[in-house]
Amino acid sequence: MGCSSCATGDDGQPRGCKNNGTCGTDGCNKLTVFDWLSNMAPAGGTKLFDCVEVRFKNSRKEFFRNTENLSLSIGDIVATQAESGHDVGMVTLVGELVKVQMKRKKVNHKDQELPKVYRKASQGDIDKWQKCRDREEEIKKRSREMAIILKLQMKISDVEFQGDGSKATFYYTAEDRVDFRQLIKDMAKAFGIRIEMRQIGYRQEAQRLGGIGSCGRELCCSTWLTDFRSVSTSAARYQQLSLNPQKLAGQCGKLKCCLNYELDLYLEALKDFPSQDTKLFTEKGIAYCQKTDIFKEKLWFSYKDDPANWHTLSKEQVIEVLEKNKKKEKVASLEEYAVENIVEEKVVFENVVGQDSLTRFDRPKRSNSKNRNRNKNRKQGNRKQQTNNKNNHGNNGQKPNKKQQSNNNQQDNNTNKSSNPNANKKRRNNKKRKPRNA
Predict the structure, then answer these.
(1) Are 51 and 66 in contact (CB under 8 A)?
(2) Which of 178, 230, 258, 330 has the fewest CB atoms nearer than 10 Å to its CB?
(3) Are residue 92 and residue 63 in the same domain, yes or no?
(4) Which band of pLDDT confidence, cut at 50, 70 and 90, is reported for residue 87?
(5) Which one-letter DSSP state was computed for residue 116?
(6) Cα separations in angstroms, 140 against 76, 143, 169
């Protein structure tokens, strides 16, 4: 779901990432913060805010104080202070916007006890960090096997190593309280590191792991959403959605956060809209509301005796009928107010595969009539020559005289000349021709 600081791939990049841009600017869309003050220099005589925002694996972000006055920019990998040892992360925000982010997350920017940035990470720090990242997937599998052997009702969803490799944090989800003291002892003995167990909710698990939602996009909680507000089933009712838990639930198993996005717009539209329980009194009988369309401002009613036959009315017509009913006046029928349903004609596309030839745009070949005439003349000349030879050989088995032979050859040449129209043409003397200029 991100680049080297948040992906779980072997090379630190998500699948399909071509590394086209500077991934230090959160090009992979993982809790991005747009620095709209980046092209503005500080006022004269003022210093940049000495705190920076650093992102670690997945969605974990923390604020650190730059006490060493390092020239840091977005995308730099830094070594930061930890409880014991140091951690390695990527700078995601610098300058005055860090103060805005700290105020938004209720962190005191004047607190001098904030953790510090030690230095820019060296190549040795980065190599050690990458080796620890490569071990995370294997250790997660082994820790799950240990939890299954101990029969603990918990799910270890993610493992995060500290930058120096001395500590690992295991994130898990569980419905009840879990006694994992024996599990910590077994993992510390097997892996040779300090172990920290941290329980998270199902929404935090989806935020850390990421994924693709039913809309085809990345999960909101793993890309930009940070505050999780409660979502109730009334949000689905106001938006006239079917209460199907499989469609309304996200990957975390809870109701989708996106149900709250358009809820305010629906509530505003429902203020001037008749309720779903409205009844219309007519001379034919009582009509009940079957369906409403808020944005088209239409309602569908049917009589109690004929529930299969629906009548479409606009919002203004329903309000008019309700006002008459308040005055104890009945309408003759709903057919007087019914709106004609205009059915849009669907464009039907015919299947024309195979009707047109694939060679319809090819140029037809020209018939070579000259070559045909030449071949005909040659065939006729050969036939005459064959008949003459037969006559010559048929003189009682005697050899022909030299005079007769020469006469026959002259006759054959004359026939060939007459049959070949190009025989009388003079041959070109290529020796006398001038060479062409190159």
Answers:
(1) yes
(2) 230
(3) yes
(4) very high
(5) B
(6) 28, 5, 11
Q: What is the CATH number of the domain that holds 137?
A: 3.30.300.20
Distance from C-alpha of 308 to C-alpha of 141, rounded to nearest angstrom: 58
Cβ atoms of 285 and 305 closer than 8 Å: yes
Total structural domains within the chain? 4
For 359-392, the pLDDT digits (tens) are 877 877 776 665 666 666 666 666 666 666 555 5
- Same-domain check for residues 260 and 289: no
C-alpha 14: how far from chain center: 13
284 and 251 share one domain: no
Task: Supply the pLDDT for residue 373.
Answer: 62
Q: Of 98, 127, 156, which residue is a domain's last?
A: 127
Radius of gyration of the chain, Cα coordinates, nearest whole angstrom: 45
Residue 29 and residue 41 in one domain: yes
Boundaries of domain holding 324: 274-336
Strands (DSSP E) found in 58-101: 61-65, 77-81, 86-93
pLDDT in tens, 281-315: 888 888 888 888 888 888 888 888 888 888 888 88
Structure token pair of residue 10: 């072997």
Domain boundary among 127, 154, 181: 127
Looking at the fold, whether 163 and 182 belong to one and the same domain comes out as yes
pLDDT at 285: 86
Looking at the fold, whether 112 and 49 belong to one and the same domain comes out as yes
Could you give phi then psi for residue 19, rounded to 5 degrees? Answer: 55, 45
Q: What share of the chain is helix, strand, coil (3-state, %, to 5)?
A: 30, 15, 50
List of E strands, 124-273: 155-161, 167-173, 194-199
Residue 217 located in a structural domain:
no
Backbone angles phi, psi at 198, to 5 degrees: -135, 120
Answer yes or no: is 160 within a domain.
yes
Closest C-alpha to 80, from 159, 9, 163, 2: 163
